[in-house]
């Protein structure tokens, strides 16, 4: 399994622990990070991403998602 596959599974599993909507923006695409298929078609390490998190547990979700993205060396910013 490539490190990218591990990142995708890790991100989707982490996201699915939260009720919040967690959307990854890459260029003009918006991907629900709970969708492994969506991540497979989008996630490349050279890309820069924006994470949009909205919902009742958004603060916890932002923290957890930030940790998992950083762990896999992905370039991202969390958008309020």
How would you concisely characterize the structure shown here?
The protein has helices at 3-15, 36-40, 58-71; strands spanning 21-26, 29-32, 48-54, 75-79. By secondary structure, the protein is α+β, with helices and mostly antiparallel strands. The chain has one domain: HPr-like (Histidine-containing Protein, Chain: A), CATH 3.30.1340.10.
Name given to the CATH architecture: 2-Layer Sandwich
Can you count the beta strands?
4
State the helical fraction: 40-55%
* Shape call: globular
Number of domains: 1
Mean pLDDT: 89
**Structural class of the helix and strand makeup?**
alpha+beta
> Remind me, CATH topology?
Histidine-containing Protein, Chain: A
Order of strands in the sheet with most strands = 2-1-3-4
Q: β content, as a range?
A: 25-35%
Tally of helical runs: 3
CATH class: Alpha Beta
Spatial gap, N to C terminus: 33 Å
Low-pLDDT stretches: none
Secondary-structure element order, as H and E? HEEHEHE
Return Rg in Å: 11 Å
Report on the biggest sheet: 4 strands, mixed
Instruction: Name the CATH superfamily assignment.
Output: HPr-like
């Amino acid at each position: 399994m490539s490190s990218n596959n591990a990142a995708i599974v890790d991100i989707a599993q982490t996201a699915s622990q939260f009720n919040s909507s967690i959307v990854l923006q890459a260029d003009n695409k918006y991907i629900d990070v709970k969708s492994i298929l969506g991540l497979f078609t989008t996630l490349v390490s050279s890309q820069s991403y924006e994470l949009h998190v909205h919902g009742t547990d958004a603060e916890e979700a932002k923290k957890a998602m930030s940790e998992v993205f950083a762990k896999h060396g992905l370039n991202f910013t969390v958008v309020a």
